[in-house]
């Protein structure tokens, strides 16, 4: 599949999360299994269009692997077991956290990743983005300060992915802040200057260059 994706998307650098190119962005976690989460993931109802996100999905919260992830990856800090699923194939925006994020792919999907250090005065050139193929069942840790956003599907069936973050991340802010990129708790975000849907939601336009769209099977 990776070679097919590379051929379909020659406009962007494409890798697997098993490649060395992934190491500045995160790591593959070999001792976390998706199996326990699959029944709840299969029960997710796909939206008619677009993508959905729940910062805490109760069926995932009541799993033994939550404790393992919380203790071993987040150093016993409380975490929330969320989920992102639906349809998407475009870059559109980039967010980052002051913490790691753990993802488990319930479907094959693609992550578009960048680095906060490449942002200059709140602006980011999309030419620095790299695409990473994540196979169904693979678990990855995305490091603090790595730019990311909604996963991209590689076929017409959409995507689904577990999202583990420190408890409270992506919740509504309690007060106003001068930092215009701070959008929710532990969530800084910019969007592409041509992404009207995010601009209308109050996201600061900061990405210039190509708004990459990923091509997959029958897309």
Keywords:
six-stranded antiparallel β-sheet, 32% strand, 5 helices, 14% helix, five-stranded mixed β-sheet, 219 residues, Jelly Rolls, single chain, alpha+beta
Explain what this protein looks like in three dimensions:
- This protein has a single domain, classed as Ureidoglycolate hydrolase (Jelly Rolls, Sandwich), CATH 2.60.120.480.
- Helices cover 14% and strands 32% of the residues.
- It contains 5 helices and 15 strands.
- It has a 6-stranded antiparallel beta sheet. Strands 5, 8, 13, 14 and 15 form a 5-stranded mixed beta sheet that branches.
- A hairpin with a 2-residue loop joins β13 (182-184) and β14 (187-192).
- The longest helix is centred in the first third of the chain and has 9 residues, at 64-72.
- The mean pLDDT is 97.
Q: What's the helix and strand layout?
A:
Blueprint: H1 2-8, E1 13-16, E2 26-29, H2 38-42, E3 51-54, H3 58-61, H4 64-72, E4 79-86, E5 93-96, E6 101-105, E7 109-115, E8 124-125, E9 130-134, E10 139-142, E11 146-147, E12 159-166, E13 182-184, E14 187-192, H5 196-200, E15 204-208
Parallel strand pairs: 1-9, 8-15, 14-15
Antiparallel strand pairs: 2-10, 3-4, 4-12, 5-14, 6-10, 6-12, 7-9, 7-11, 13-14
Which fold does the CATH topology refer to? Jelly Rolls
What's the CATH superfamily, by name? Ureidoglycolate hydrolase
Distance between the termini: 14 Å
Give the helix level as a range of percent.
10-25%
Brief write-up:
The chain has 219 residues and is an alpha+beta fold. The chain has helices at 2-8, 38-42, 58-61, 64-72, 196-200; strands at residues 13-16, 26-29, 51-54, 79-86, 93-96, 101-105, 109-115, 124-125, 130-134, 139-142, 146-147, 159-166, 182-184, 187-192, 204-208.
């Amino acid at each position: 599949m990776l070679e097919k994706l590379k051929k379909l998307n020659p406009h962007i650098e494409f890798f697997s999360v098993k490649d060395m190119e992934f190491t500045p962005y995160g790591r593959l976690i070999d001792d976390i299994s998706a199996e326990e989460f699959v029944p709840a993931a299969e029960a997710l109802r796909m939206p008619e269009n677009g993508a959905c996100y729940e910062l805490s999905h109760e069926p995932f919260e009541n799993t033994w692997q939550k404790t393992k992830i919380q203790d071993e990856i987040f150093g016993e800090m409380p975490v929330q077991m969320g989920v992102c699923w639906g349809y998407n194939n475009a870059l559109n925006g980039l967010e980052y956290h002051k913490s790691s994020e753990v993802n488990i792919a319930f479907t094959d999907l693609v992550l578009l990743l960048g680095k906060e250090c490449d942002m200059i005065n709140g602006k980011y050139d999309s030419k620095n983005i790299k695409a990473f193929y994540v196979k169904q069942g693979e678990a990855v840790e995305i490091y603090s300060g790595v730019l990311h956003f909604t996963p991209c599907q590689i076929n017409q069936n959409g995507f689904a992915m577990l999202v583990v973050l420190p408890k409270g991340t992506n919740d509504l802010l309690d007060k106003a802040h001068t930092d215009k990129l701070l959008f929710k708790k532990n969530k800084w975000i910019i969007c592409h200057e041509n992404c009207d849907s995010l601009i209308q939601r109050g996201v600061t336009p900061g990405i210039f260059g190509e708004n990459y769209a990923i091509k997959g099977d029958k897309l």
